């Protein structure tokens, strides 16, 4: 019996696609080891933060818990490690490359960071691994400023999109580069029977003030998405959607329309992958008639950066693989972290070769056979009634570095947000705890 189970497990692994997922790198070019961690500024651990005295902890070599982003050496060490951990079938990379020093960024700095990280990915992953990127809200300057495509000249985002198209050209077909240059979104075939759609979620962001001009579908992106999904449905393709900002954190009307689309194409959209919040969570989509039947999951992976008070991390998704009849849905995922306490003090100085270790595998941590929508909905119900399971989720939510427990209102609010793949979906919150919840602020 053990041998049969082993063979079945081996068969499942063989038939799986193994996808590396990176998000929210936030490289800080001015990160300085030994600088002040608690500097009373929006971003610390930098050249201008001041030096730490004997009374205060200085920024660590590999990164620091606090309001700090990452040095380039940590980003490169991660890429060296994931290159050894391959092979990867492909990579999803959902943006936010620059640090949180949003008050001092320039076009030249943003482009330099985009080019540097893109070329490091090429260097370490090699020419045989395709990376499918998405645009983050920090790629532009001013931060969150993404004018619709009908805005031209110096106020447009052409300076950013042209460089993205140029740097990402080795990974993407010509047609994808054309829509990137126009609006920062694209689609392409990953494998026969599977298509990826990379959305520019800045066209739904509440912080993008350009959307006061048109917040419904400012770049025609949702209509474009519908056309792509209809073509895929006609051809029997499955579609993965990737993007930076989770749809539940978008402007209300955009979010509602997106929810309609996911409902309509529930048999075609078999994976949604986002980042942005820096923590490990997900958002559920239900049928619009009853809001009870789970039909899709937006997986939200934790950040590479430490901001705020986190271990660096990355995600690996196991997706039903490339064979006739594959549903291309998420079967499992793993989260890996760099434990900064160990990496910065081994035994009294930084470890020159720190280990990126497995924090958890979802199926094992929660006792799930797959991560289908019905499984994730059932997990929410278990967390609501079994506090031990919820507290495990809370620990993993922060990549294994929790400063305080989550109880009472914190718990009910978080469970509510897991239900809410649509902005202002308060009916689900009413069911859970009888009142309205405060929608989480997005990472600025």
Automatic annotation (TrEMBL):
It is found in: Lipid droplet; Lysosome; Secreted, Extracellular space. InterPro entries: ASM_C (IPR045473), ASMase/PPN1_MPP (IPR041805), Calcineurin-like_PHP (IPR004843), Metallo-depent_PP-like (IPR029052). The keyword ATP-binding does not apply. Its EC number is 3.1.4.12, 3.1.4.3. Pfam families: ASMase_C, Metallophos. Keywords: Disulfide bond, Glycoprotein, Glycosidase, Hydrolase, Lipid droplet, Lipid metabolism, Lysosome, Metal-binding, Phosphoprotein, Secreted, Signal, Zinc. The gene is smpd1. This is Sphingomyelin phosphodiesterase. Residues 295-419 form the Sphingomyelin phosphodiesterase C-terminal domain. It catalyses: 1,2-dihexadecanoyl-sn-glycero-3-phosphocholine + H2O = 1,2-dihexadecanoyl-sn-glycerol + phosphocholine + H(+); a sphingomyelin + H2O = phosphocholine + an N-acylsphing-4-enine + H(+); a 1,2-diacyl-sn-glycero-3-phosphocholine + H2O = phosphocholine + a 1,2-diacyl-sn-glycerol + H(+); N-(octadecanoyl)-sphing-4-enine-1-phosphocholine + H2O = N-octadecanoylsphing-4-enine + phosphocholine + H(+). It is an enzyme of class 3 (hydrolase).
